[in-house]
Amino acid sequence: MSDLPKVRRLEAVGFRAWPAASVQYDGSWLCRLTAGHPSRRLNSVNPLDPSDYRDIDIRLQKAAKRFADYGRPLLVRQTPLTPPKLIAFMDEAGWVEDGHTVVMMADLATLPRDEGLDHLPSRDVGRFVDARIRVAGDDPALKPGLTEIINAIKPETGLFIFEDTAFGPTAGTIAVHDNDLVGILQLGVAEEWRGQGLGTAILHASLRWAKLKGARHAWVQVEADNAAAIALYRRAGFQDVYQYSYRGPAAV
């Protein structure tokens, strides 16, 4: 059984840490759409109250129209806050479930006390986006959309980049400090540099920065089938809080 107050708080800080371009509410269903980036987190319906299940069919039709206007497929992000009657509706209609993600948290008090701030975050969004695309092997066409997302993050943000003088960027991550919490996003290590401890190093660098800023706990969202990333976070003291997945109508 999930701790719903904790889930609600992590959902709220998650939305602030990775802001969508368009945000519309239908009751307590949050519709997030972003024309400039295909991320499902930025293009999904997010129900936030298990008791809000009125007019399910009509509301999904309205959401589908909004998504079609953005050229996006209709997706519902199913979390512990999703109304059971909406889940039953999707099950009966044969909606496909995909993309399981684990939300994890860690207590920053477990970080070594004698370690100082050995890496400072960058303030250059363009440089970070270029590094992120290189490290992840992403399509360079995503640069404008990713730049817009990062510039729209309102809580204090640290952009961490590790580089090699000959190779260029080797690892990167974003730390979003929001009151006593810090979210770790977009952590990646270049394929040629994996297995050398860079993921652990850049994670701890960002967590130390956030701890000095006053954060007490860290959270992360990681795909359930990414065994290497889950192992990295578990070694750093992260523990599972809840999971979510995406649901969409079956292709006709």
TrEMBL record:
Residue ranges constituting the N-acetyltransferase domain according to the UniProt record:
115-252
Species of provenance: Shinella kummerowiae
Q: Name one Pfam family in it.
A: Rv0428c_C
Domain of life, per UniProt, equals Bacteria
Q: GO terms for molecular function, please?
A: acyltransferase activity, transferring groups other than amino-acyl groups
Name of this chain's protein = GNAT family N-acetyltransferase
Keywords carried by this UniProt record: Acyltransferase, Transferase
InterPro entries assigned to the protein according to its UniProt record, in alphabetical order: Acyl_CoA_acyltransferase, GNAT_dom, Rv0428c-like_C, YpeA/RimI_acetyltransf
